[in-house]
Structures are given as C-alpha cells and as structure tokens.
C-alpha cells in the first residue's frame, strides 16, 4: 500500500546522477549573492546589539532624517532623468566598513538596499543584512530618528 504523504525529505528540487543528488540552482542564483532580509524592528534590535547601519539613500534623503549613527554612502545619485548608480559605491563602503563588519543596509523603501546588500555580499562582505521596507518602515514603526 502506498502512503498518502511523503516524508518532507523527499520534497525539493534535486537532480540525480551517478554521484548522488545535488540542489538545482539557476545560473543567476549561483552568481548573485542574496543577503538576509529582516523586518525593520529586527534591524533596530540588531543596531542596538552593535550592527552598523549603512544608509544607501541619496544625500538629500539622508539629510531629511536617518537612524542614529547611520553612515550614508549613496547607492545611487539623483540625475536629471532619475537615478544613476554610484560607480564608487564599493570603494566608499570599503573605506568605512571591513569585510567582516556586521552591517544592516537600508534605503527609503527597500529596493536600493537589497541591490546594495547583494552587491556587498558578492564583493565578499560576510555579515550583510538588508532592511525590508527601508526608512519608510522605520518611520512607520516610530523608531528613533536624527535630523
């Protein structure tokens, strides 16, 4: 008689070969490092525990308010037609942070910080955490802000 359910270890994407099974990964997954992403309250707790806050918003956004002790290195700059990537982003971050530093990365809504955090992970930074929801969520949760 066949069981009505399969044990959990039988689920998942694997490919079998002569040498056993290995997880399937797309080429994009293999080349792009994906940082951990946490809710804003968890990010605040991490900051209180000693993680350093990297704010990747523009200088103007940062000047309008930011978490205490945040370091501003814009991931993008405003241009006449929108936003342009900061080609010196990794160099500037590397001048302020070490590869093993515990860094939480935030932007305004969470999109730029995820891109920036992924780039940092790909560059060898080992303890990078993205803030889901960004500074907007920080404000909505009434967390401390410096102006």
From TrEMBL:
<dbReference type="Pfam" id="PF00581">
    <property type="entry name" value="Rhodanese"/>
</dbReference>
<feature type="domain" description="Rhodanese">
    <location>
        <begin position="47"/>
        <end position="147"/>
    </location>
</feature>
<dbReference type="InterPro" id="IPR052367">
    <property type="entry name" value="Thiosulfate_ST/Rhodanese-like"/>
</dbReference>
<protein>
    <recommendedName>
        <fullName>Rhodanese domain-containing protein</fullName>
    </recommendedName>
</protein>
<dbReference type="InterPro" id="IPR001763">
    <property type="entry name" value="Rhodanese-like_dom"/>
</dbReference>
